[in-house]
Amino acid sequence: MQTVVLYRKNGCALCDEVRALLSLFSVEVAEIDIETDPELHEKYFLEIPVVRINEEELDYRSIDYFELQKRLQ
């Protein structure tokens, strides 16, 4: 099973939506709260949710069902 990383923070409605979207696929989701790491917070603060599939990152502007389906094949 493929592992996908979801960079998120608490109270983020978009993050919750992306988590639900990822649950439609047969993937393991590793969630990382950006607020626990100052470097991640600085890097992703304005971009979350961010999904990393292999070495490629998708920010909230490019995450949708069809894009995830294409990249998870």
From TrEMBL:
It holds the Pfam family Glrx-like. Signal peptide: none annotated. InterPro entries: Glutaredoxin-like, Glutaredoxin-like_YDR286C, Thioredoxin-like_sf. This is Glutaredoxin family protein. It comes from Halobacillus kuroshimensis. The lineage of its organism: Bacteria, Bacillati, Bacillota, Bacilli, Bacillales.
